[in-house]
Design goal:
Elements lengths: L3 H22 L6 H19 L3 H18 L10 H19 L2 H8 L13
Helix pairs in contact: 1-2, 1-3, 1-4, 2-3
């Protein structure tokens, strides 16, 4: 079975990459130099993630949020609240797990089972 924690980390990075790519591809009229630095940082983060260095990739994504906030870019993505980030990451991971897990294993994970055990002991 694949490591679900790694899938969650990959999903978190994929979500961040998609959000930043969409923002940087939009024409917002904001400072082009800051946007160029953000684009460069995004490419470095993608390269780090592709090489398996998730810690560096996550640090670069956090740096992008900080740089956009410090530069005062009004339409730049903001770091989501923990609950929102978790929900969005689970959404991305759900798609990843469909590709990795077999149908039988997915059905087992989707099943809720209740077990009742009866013993002959008296209190």
């Amino acid at each position: 079975m694949p490591d679900v924690y790694e899938i969650m980390l990959d999903a978190e990075l994929s979500k961040a990459f998609d959000v930043w790519s969409s923002y940087l591809n939009a024409r917002t009229g904001e400072d082009p130099q800051v946007r160029a630095r953000l684009r460069s940082t995004l490419e470095r983060a993608r390269t780090a993630a592709a090489e398996g260095d998730r810690v560096c990739a996550r640090a670069l994504v956090a740096e992008m949020y900080d740089e956009a906030r410090d530069a005062g870019l009004p339409w730049a993505p903001t770091s989501p609240a923990p609950r929102t980030a978790d929900r969005q990451t689970r959404d991305y991971a759900k798609d990843e797990l469909r590709q990795v897990l077999s149908v039988d294993l997915r059905e087992d994970l989707d099943t809720i089972a209740i077990f009742l055990s009866v013993t002959g002991r008296r209190l």
